[in-house]
Amino acid sequence: MAGFVQIIEYRTSKPDEVRALTEQYSKDREADEDPGPTRAMSCADRDEPGRYFTIVEFGSYEEAKANSDRADTSEFAAKMMELCDGPTKFYNLDLEETMEMG
After folding, report:
1. DSSP sequence for 22-83
2. Residue 100: inside a domain, yes or no?
3. 36-95: per-residue pLDDT in tens?
4. Containing domain of residue 29, as a range?
5. SS3 89
6. CA distances from residue 44 to 16, 51, 66, 67 in whole angstroms, order as listed
7. Distance CA 21, CA 5 (A)
8. How crowded is residue 70: how many other Cβ atoms within 10 Å of its Cβ?
9. For residue 56, what is the domain's CATH number?
10. d(CA 39, CA 42)
11. Structural domains in the chain (count)
12. 30 lies in a domain?
């Protein structure tokens, strides 16, 4: 199974601003024909308030790299960093298997 997943771990005291920034970035990308993420999830850590994860799925590593190299993605990342309380941590994962559960 082909695929690539990136998990971004970050801390912020401005989750509403992060959400608004992410929604605007997504809206701006809707009409774009270049490959982008196939799915994205934003998660709040229930056990550690202020800690968040974004999980982004791509069709391939190459699509993820092309997305990362885009000017609008770089701009989004820079604005995102301004809203974070410290550095982000990235996990870059080759997708091996998915399962749909009942």
Report:
1. HHHHHHHHTT--S---SEEEEEE-SSSTTEEEEEEEES-HHHHHHHHTSHHHHHHHHHHHHH
2. no
3. 788 999 999 999 999 999 999 999 999 999 999 999 999 999 999 999 999 999 999 999
4. 4-94
5. strand
6. 12, 6, 27, 24
7. 21
8. 14
9. 3.30.70.100
10. 10
11. 1
12. yes
Q: How far apart are CA 76 and CA 25, in angstroms?
A: 7
Burial (CB < 10 A; 0-12, 13-18, 19+), residue 55, is middle
Q: Amino acid letter at 91?
A: Y
* Model pTM above 0.90: no
Tokens of 91: 């996990």
Give, in order, the Cα–Cα distances in Å from 84 to each of 10, 38, 39, 102. 7, 25, 22, 36
**Is residue 76 in a domain?**
yes
Amino acid at 76: F
Contact 73, 32 (CB under 8 A): no
Does residue 1 carry a pLDDT above 80?
no
pLDDT tens column, 14-28: 999 999 999 999 888
